[in-house]
Amino acid sequence: MHVMLRPASTSAPSNIGNRPLPFHPNPMPLELPGFSAWIECEGSKLACHAVERSDDGKTATCWIASEVGKTFSIRWSRERCGTTQVMSGGVYIDGVQCGLLQRMESDEPSTRVFYIHGISTSSSTIRPFTFANLQFTGKWVQICHCGAVHTDFNRTDENEYTETGNARHIGEIELKIYHRKKSTIVPATWTADNPLGEPKIHERAKKATSHKVKYVAQTSLLVLFPPDLSRLGDETMCQNSTEQYTVTLGEKLANFTFKYRPIDVLRANGIILDTAAYPGPNFATNLEAAHDPGNPVRKDGSNLALLAVKEEASKEVARVAAGAPQDLHIKIEADAQDTDGTQSATAQDEEDADVAELRALKEKYLKLKRKIEMKALRKRLADLEREENGDPSTSQGPAKKARTGTDATGYIACVQRNERPSTSQVPATKVRRRSSIMDLTGDSD
């Protein structure tokens, strides 16, 4: 694979161009082993949301919030030197390679930041990357670019009127980093052509895309086809390198993909859960707060609004799949929010009732527990009192009275509960009665 690349200049940062800058740590970059990358929009680093990484550790994907009319740059750094080979990094926007590859020497400091922020049109000018509008207007498409509106309603050749570039990658910014095998220095060349072109999306291409992602029908079509695109802005002055390289690329080391959408679209589809005016670095905190039942964000009907948007998007996908001719209209407004907030009040009342019922059940449980404990204590106290009084039936309960009787031998048999005589017999006490016979012999004591 032979490509052209321009070496990373080490001149002062005040000269605007595709070269390394002093390292400024980003609180939320997109990271892979040995590398980190991020999008910087007019001096602010865009937060990465819903980050996904491949199992092999070479591919990372996230979502970022774009804003129409803002310029941006793609930046990356080499966090650690895990290889001694020379590397190259290239940027692809909407599936189109933009700018020459950045040369990364093997002895480059790990604190260096590389970046590409536009297309060089000469040794002293560059056209920066800019977010622009893409609006669907019925069957055809209206493109807003650099303040001018281009509308095409009269084209009938569907084969000729197709999307520019790869429609599958519209709304994506990719950074690919490779090992570089060999290179040859050649003079720099410039072009005034716009590699991004003016993307025109045919209705048939739109339907094909909808069908392809049908398994995520709950996601708004605005996520599948963004209203924002990356365009080239007006030329600005800068100092560019006058040398280029013809290189042969080797193994791909890292692939970063930034999917850009308007922040309202990201919120409507649950990618950004906070309600701040702009996605900040505290996304993890906002995500945790959004799952908190006591958070007012969950009580004001925002979740209901999200479901309404997704349900409407699902219906639009179904109609497109059925081939029904209609205009595509996706509303981002919170339709589920009533004017007087009745749904919010109802949800609040239900939650309060549940809390009150739970509190009452807990109090009832504690009362029963105390009652059982008191009963056990009283029983134990009674047992202790009987033991102190010498009652042998303390632990066995009241004993039955033993029945006694005298047998023919003059012994008293102790009868047990089973009515059987015990083996121990006690002699009966002989009672000496006073004799009632009178002595007639005259001998008296």
Mind explaining what this structure looks like?
The protein has a domain at 30-139 and 168-219 and 231-269. The protein is 21% helix and 31% strand. It is built from six helices and 21 strands. The chain has helices at 203-212, 221-224, 263-268, 283-290, 302-321, 342-388, and strands spanning 2-7, 30-32, 35-41, 44-45, 49-53, 59-66, 71-78, 87-93, 96-104, 113-116, 118-120, 125-137, 140-145, 148-151, 172-187, 228-232, 236-237, 243-262, 404-406, 411-414, 426-427. The strands form three sheets. Strands 2, 3, 4, 7, 10, 11, 12, 13, 14, 16 and 17 form an eleven-stranded antiparallel sheet that branches. Strands 1-9-8-15-18 form a five-stranded mixed β-barrel. Strands 19-20-21 form a three-stranded antiparallel sheet, with no helix packed on it.
- Kindly state the mean pLDDT as a whole number? 62
Sheet having the most strands: 11 strands, antiparallel
Order of helices and strands: EEEEEEEEEEEEEEEHHEEEHHHHEEE
Measured as a percent range, the helix fraction is 10-25%
3D shape: elongated
Give the class from helix and strand content and strand pairing.
alpha+beta
Measured distance between first and last alpha carbons: 152 Å
Work out the number of β strands: 21
Q: From the alpha-carbon coordinates, what is the Rg to the nearest angstrom? A: 44 Å
Number of helices: 6
Low-confidence stretches: 1-27, 136-165, 202-227, 276-291, 295-310, 323-337, 397-419, 421-426
Strand content: 25-35%
